[in-house]
Design brief:
Blueprint (H helix, E strand, L loop, with lengths): L2 H13 L1 H29 L11 E8 L14 H8 L3 E14 L4 E9 L3 H5 L5 E2 L1 H6 L3 E5 H8 L8 E4 L2 E9 L12 E4 L7 H8 L8 E6 L5 H13 L3 H4 L2 H7 L5 E7 L20 H32 L1 H9 L4 H38 L9 H31 L3 H5 L8 H36 L10 E5 L7 H11 L4 E7 L10 E5 L5 E9 L3 H4 L4 E4 L14 E5 H6 L5 H4 L3 E4 L2 E9 L14 E5 L5 E6 L3 H15 L7 E3 H6 L6 H32 L1 H9 L4 H35 L11 H26 L3 H6 L1
Helix pairs in contact: 1-13, 2-11, 2-13, 3-8, 11-14, 11-16, 11-23, 13-14, 16-23, 16-25, 16-26, 17-21, 23-26, 25-26
């Protein structure tokens, strides 16, 4: 392969600009999608690799055999004491992240404050930009800020020695540390010691002094001659010697049996992002292994489709150049020289397409980065750019060789004597079936993406039409610093209620649509103990949300005493869970909560108060003023109402950040996370269908060329135009049916799996796959109609002469 071959290849490309443009653009799009997918995979697989000696750092994972029997990236932090006493060569650090509102020189900012042991320095190898990080982790009134957090709080990075305020406490900034990269499962915004004043003492004690709490994370850096399995066994043994077993309830002991209290594993830090265990919470970042694998498959499939499309184009081009190739062989050109020329052309096309694809990937990377949630632009460093160019050159040459293999094989099999005599053809039965197989593959993948896009779109439309039991578009949700038991919160609620566009207000423990993990043990008259989800509400809660009773009555501010409540309301699911025969049978019955008798006064109509990703759970509603989530029912423009509330907030809570959100957004926030994926799938769908269209068009042209003599002979024997159309259509109908059999079952299973993640799922059934089949059939019909019309009007005389 010489430079002269590339010059000849370039001239041949210029001679057929339309063909060359289609080939290059199709392959370039495949390269673009592949490069974007590759950047996503690279980013996902390189989480936490910036940490020094990351190979020796592990996160402790546990499975509580007495509880939900799911793996967690958490462990009771009391096990750290046993590790420290063991004398083993290791460092261990506990981490708990607090949501705080910090004030520096300017406005209050939301900042995630990581509380950790001083050993965090050794475990993660953190070196401060300036100051003393050990002081920040040792003193209860000191902390360290990252560079970006310092800039947010003080306007610049010169924050060392300054003070920040969290609630009523003041903290000295004793160190500045570098920002953690975006691809980190342990991001830092601010760091302080485990005994910080920012953490309530009772909350800290409940987490750090408990053998059952799984709120904290424990990271371990192992030294020499010690294995992760050895540490995991020791932790499990220490937990088993704890007093937890004696504290368990009878049903928990029955579930535990003779198993250890905790199964324990040490997971590598770099595996944490894609580890399918329950996330560690507290600011830990988790990825989705299924999505990552899907992105890899999409990138690979689109590239393979583009290669298949190019192979089809190159094959048609070789067929058109049979006489030219035969003449070159007759004039003495060696077989290897002719074959090498074909390979050179495919490599040249691949190089050009890879360059264009790399440029397109660079242009769309910011948009793809926003959709994926990854800061992929951080990969665009000078070093990565140079390495990327070298990798693309090598990769494109390999792709060129692979794509050119079959056209080169066809070239090698051309028999000059047969071709020049007009009797031969380089097209074998194997070659014909190869092209058909490539077209089937393209349409099968196309149908898959059409079906998935329709499934996602149908689910989103279902969510927007869902009946929540109330009208969420009429409500705003506000998170107050504390509940209505505080005079300032009560004053703010009253002031909001007096606004002209506000109809009513009410309060609850958490905003509607947010995850609610509050539960309570209900003791029945027959001594059964049943756990229900619990929501604390103000007396006017049901009235404001216009929720009617199924039986009995609901809370009434004029009747029910919120200071010493003696009544509760349950929902329809709780009726069944508590063992009542009907809602009416439940009304008037007494239950106990913490030995206090409470009467069930009513059963409310079904209402969706949690995220649509969560299954509805049996719930009991109890009266309380400790309700910091304020719901505002309004009329008119929500922007005007929000502006008025913002003004009132500044008067009542000047040291706190206003968090005001539409209730519909809170309810749909989880399910709406598929919208970016829907956009990606839709774009890929358009690309795949376009490639499939071109592939079917090429196959149609080839089929017409291959069967031209058969067609005119049929015409000479009386075949009509519709007979010719049926003859050609039969082949493509078979291809579409085979494509459907390959692509649609997979699409149906994947679509059902996607819908199963939603508590409220759309009844899409087989309609998405049927619509995909119809859509693909229409594309196939459009791509073949031109050549079918040509065949119907083909002149027998000209065809037989050709």
């Amino acid at each position: 392969m010489k430079f002269r071959d590339f010059r000849i290849g370039w001239r041949l490309l210029i001679q057929e600009p339309a063909h060359s443009l289609v080939a290059i653009i199709g392959l370039a799009i495949g390269f673009m999608v592949f490069f974007l997918g590759l950047s996503y995979i690279y980013y996902a697989l390189h989480f936490d690799r910036h940490v020094p000696e990351y190979q020796h750092i592990f996160i402790v994972k546990s499975l509580p055999n007495w509880e939900d029997q799911r793996w967690h990236e958490n462990i009771p932090t009391l096990v750290k004491d046993g590790l420290e006493r063991s004398g083993l060569p290791l460092h261990a650090a506990r981490l708990v992240v607090l949501d705080t509102e910090m004030r520096g020189d300017g406005a209050v900012q939301n900042v995630k404050l990581t509380t950790a042991d001083a050993s965090l320095i050794e475990v993660f190898g953190i070196k401060p930009v300036e100051g003393d990080l050990l002081v920040a982790l040792s003193r209860p009134n000191a902390l360290a800020l990252t560079v970006s957090t310092a800039r947010r709080l003080f306007g610049d990075t010169h924050a060392l020695g300054k003070y920040v305020h969290i609630k009523n406490d003041t903290f000295l900034v004793s160190a500045i540390i570098s920002d953690t990269p975006d691809n980190s499962t342990v991001p830092f915004s601010a760091v302080t010691g485990i005994n910080t004043l920012a953490w309530k003492a009772d909350e800290r004690k409940a987490i750090l002094d408990s053998w059952s709490d799984l709120s904290a994370r424990l990271y371990i850096k192992l030294g020499a001659n010690i294995s992760a399995d050895q540490i995991a066994r020791r932790i499990a043994e220490d937990a088993d010697r704890s007093p937890l077993r004696a504290q368990l309830k009878a049903e928990q002991l029955a579930q535990l049996g003779h198993d250890p209290l905790y199964e324990v594993k040490l997971g590598a830090l770099t595996d944490s992002f894609l580890d399918p265990v329950v996330g560690g919470g507290n600011g830990s970042r988790k990825g989705n292994r299924t999505i990552t694998i899907s992105v890899a498959c999409i990138a690979l499939f689109v590239l393979l489709l583009a290669i298949a499309n190019y192979v089809n184009l190159a094959t048609v081009r070789i067929i058109a150049r049979q006489r030219e190739i035969a003449i070159r062989k007759v004039l003495g050109a060696p077989h290897w020289r002719v074959v090498m020329q074909v390979l050179t052309e495919t490599i040249l096309v691949s190089l050009i397409a890879a360059g264009v694809g790399m440029l397109l990937a660079w242009l769309v990377l910011p948009g793809f980065s926003a959709l994926s949630g990854f800061a992929l632009e951080s990969l665009l460093t000078a070093t990565n750019f140079l390495l990327g160019i070298l990798a693309v050159l090598g990769f494109s040459i390999v792709i060129g060789l692979l794509a050119g293999f079959y056209p080169a094989l066809m070239t090698a099999k051309i028999r000059p004597s047969a071709i020049l005599a007009g009797r031969g053809s380089s097209v074998s039965t194997h070659g014909m079936w190869l092209r058909r197989s490539l077209t089937v593959f393209q349409f099968a993948v196309g149908m898959f993406f059409i079906s998935m896009a329709l499934t996602m779109s149908g689910q989103l439309q279902h969510i927007s039409r869902l009946n929540f039991g109330f009208d969420p578009d009429k409500f705003l949700s506000i998170e107050m610093p504390y509940g209505l038991e505080q005079a300032n919160a009560k004053s703010f609620s009253d002031a909001v209620r007096r606004l002209p566009s506000v109809v009513k207000t009410t309060a609850s423990t958490v905003a509607i649509g947010q995850a609610d993990f509050w539960n309570v043990d209900i003791t029945m008259p027959d001594a059964r103990v049943i756990k229900l989800d619990k929501t604390l509400v103000s007396p006017d809660y049901f009235n404001v949300y216009e929720i009617a009773p199924l039986a009995g009555r609901l809370f009434d501010a004029k009747i029910d005493n919120v200071d010493n409540p003696s009544v509760v309301v349950i929902d329809a699911l709780a009726v069944t869970r508590l063992g009542f025969s009907s809602p009416t049978a439940a009304v008037g019955q007494f239950i106990k909560v913490k030995d206090k008798p409470l009467q069930i006064i009513g059963v409310n109509q079904p209402v969706r108060t949690q995220s649509l990703l969560m299954d509805a759970a049996p719930r009991v509603f109890m009266l309380s003023l400790e309700t910091p989530s304020l719901s505002v029912k309004f009329e008119g423009d929500p922007a005007i109402v929000s502006a008025a509330i913002t003004h009132l907030w500044a008067q009542h809570f000047p040291q706190n950040i206003l968090q005001i959100k539409p209730v519909r957004n809170l309810l749909e926030r989880g399910p709406r996370q598929i919208e970016p994926m829907l956009i990606i799938v839709s774009i890929v769908m358009c690309i795949v269908i376009s490639l499939a269209f071109v592939g079917m068009y090429i196959l149609s042209a080839y089929s017409l060329q291959r069967r031209s003599k058969e067609i005119v002979l049929r015409k000479l024997y009386g075949a009509m135009g519709r007979d010719i159309a049926q003859l050609l259509s039969y082949e493509f109908i078979v291809l579409i049916v085979v494509s459907a059999l390959l692509g649609l079952p997979v699409a149906y299973v994947m679509g059902e799996s996607l819908l199963d993640e939603f508590a409220e799922r759309a009844a899409i059934g087989p309609w998405a796959v049927l619509a995909a089949l119809v859509s693909a059939s229409i594309v196939a019909m459009i791509s073949t109609i031109r050549h079918t019309r040509v065949a119907m009007h083909m002149s027998p005389a000209s065809a037989l002469r050709g």
